[in-house]
Design goal:
Layout: E1 7-16, E2 21-26, E3 31-36, H1 38-42, E4 52-57, E5 64-70, H2 74-78
Parallel strand pairs: 3-5
Antiparallel strand pairs: 1-2, 1-4, 2-3, 4-5
Length: 79
């Protein structure tokens, strides 16, 4: 197993917390605490409650993760 092994999940941002942290809900209904990756911070990507994101979760601590990508919203793709 490589050292950079991680689990990737699509999730929904439920709550915005302080210091660029968010509470997201995974597809199974489980909620975890996440932070924003450095690349998204450099690009000033805005993440708000209701956005769909991709979360990278370490297999060693399944309660914390990192937001690595914001997915396009369903409303903008339907119009």
């Amino acid at each position: 197993m490589p050292a950079t092994y991680s689990l990737k999940h699509s999730a929904l941002v439920v709550e915005k917390l302080s210091k660029a942290r968010f509470r997201v809900e995974l597809a199974g209904g489980r909620r975890i605490l996440t932070t924003v990756s450095g690349l998204l911070r450099l690009k000033f990507t805005r993440i708000l409650p209701g956005h769909h994101v991709v979360v990278s979760v370490s297999p060693y601590d399944l309660n914390k993760g990192t937001i690595i990508q914001r997915l396009p919203s369903l409303q903008s793709t339907q119009q």
